[in-house]
TrEMBL record:
Keywords per UniProt: Cell membrane, Membrane, Protein transport, Translocation, Transmembrane, Transmembrane helix, Transport
Pfam families, sorted: TatC
Biased composition (Polar residues): 272-283
Subcellular location field: Cell membrane; Membrane
InterPro entries per record: TatC
Organism name: Glutamicibacter ardleyensis
Oligomer status and interactors: The Tat system comprises two distinct complexes: a TatABC complex, containing multiple copies of TatA, TatB and TatC subunits, and a separate TatA complex, containing only TatA subunits. Substrates initially bind to the TatABC complex, which probably triggers association of the separate TatA complex to form the active translocon.
Region (Disordered): 1-21, 259-283
Membrane topology: Multi-pass membrane protein
Transmembrane segments: 37-55, 84-110, 122-150, 170-194, 206-223, 229-249
Lineage: Bacteria, Bacillati, Actinomycetota, Actinomycetes, Micrococcales
Function: Part of the twin-arginine translocation (Tat) system that transports large folded proteins containing a characteristic twin-arginine motif in their signal peptide across membranes. Together with TatB, TatC is part of a receptor directly interacting with Tat signal peptides.
Designated name of the protein: Sec-independent protein translocase protein TatC
Annotated family: Belongs to the TatC family.
Length: 283
């Protein structure tokens, strides 16, 4: 005979993670956040170590737009080379570990996924990572135009010097800002697929979104360089419009499916009620 007391510890252990409605407690959320942050940090460390081996090639790639614009890079202190090497390695780590931390962020926002929604999470990460890298590549592509504009403002017969301590942080902020901006449309689609964000809400606040995109593009391409700003803002507008259209179509399909399900339930309920109300003819 199985002792009923042996089952109690298992039941209590299971109830600690979620309540009767399937919601996680604050402690469980904090534990999950810690675990996902730990996994992201491990991936970041591995990517940073790889960044030290790619330092020379990547630094030459980052300095090339300055040389193409007619400027030159200078170091400001004895420790600057090591400091720059560390910053470049961390930047490589952030980019290289993007598949891990992008998925961990999404999985934390939408916890307790079912099998179908878990496949959606993998698809989200598979689409988000290329878009993140595309945003970085797009910012790097328009960088020479911005540098050329600033160098053109210098006085004649003068030499333009960029201190590497200020140049590289500016470049990293620019690249990461547009890489992260390209994740917003994917996040919109993902939240819509799980029923959190509706296309009606997106369309209601489209003016605010357009203003934010234009503001980010203007801040990332300062100095009044309209060509650079439009080159950066254009893909963001296109991806936002595509994400909004996808959410609208998906909401239409979801509403149609729900209407068909409600009609089927009503017909089933009406059939059950009619069978109960019909008097029996048997003797």
């Amino acid at each position: 005979m199985v002792n009923s007391k042996d089952k109690e510890p298992r039941t209590k252990k299971k109830s600690r993670s979620k309540d009767a409605e399937g919601r996680m407690s604050l402690k469980a959320h904090l534990i999950e956040a810690r675990n996902r942050l730990f996994k992201s940090l491990i991936a970041l460390v591995i990517g940073t170590v790889a960044g030290f081996f790619l330092y020379d090639e990547l630094l030459a790639l980052l300095i090339e737009p300055v040389r193409a614009a007619g400027g030159s890079i200078t170091y400001t202190s004895v420790m600057s080379p090591f400091d720059i090497m560390l910053k470049v390695a961390i930047f490589v780590g952030v980019v290289a570990s993007s598949p891990v931390w992008i998925y961990q962020i999404w999985a934390f926002i939408i916890p307790g996924l079912k099998k179908k929604e878990r496949r959606l999470s993998y698809s989200f990460a598979a689409v988000a990572v290329p878009l993140f890298l595309f945003g970085i590549a797009m910012a790097y592509f328009v960088l020479p135009f911005a540098l050329q504009f600033f160098v053109s403002l210098a006085a004649a017969n003068s030499e333009t010097l960029f201190t590497i301590d200020t140049y590289l942080p500016f470049i990293f902020r620019l690249l990461l800002a547009f890489g992260l901006a390209m994740l917003v449309p994917v996040l919109m689609v993902g939240l819509n697929m799980v029923g959190v964000l509706s296309s009606k809400l997106i369309l209601k606040n489209w003016r605010i979104t357009v203003f934010i995109i234009a503001l980010v593009a203007a801040m990332a391409a300062p100095g009044g360089d309209a060509i650079t700003m439009f080159a950066l803002a254009g893909p963001l507008f296109l991806t936002f419009a595509a994400a909004t259209l996808f959410c609208y179509i998906n909401d239409k399909k979801r509403a149609k499916k729900q209407a068909e399900q409600d009609a089927a339930n009503e017909n089933m309920a009406a059939g059950s009620a009619s069978s109960i109300d019909t008097p029996s003819t048997e003797v």
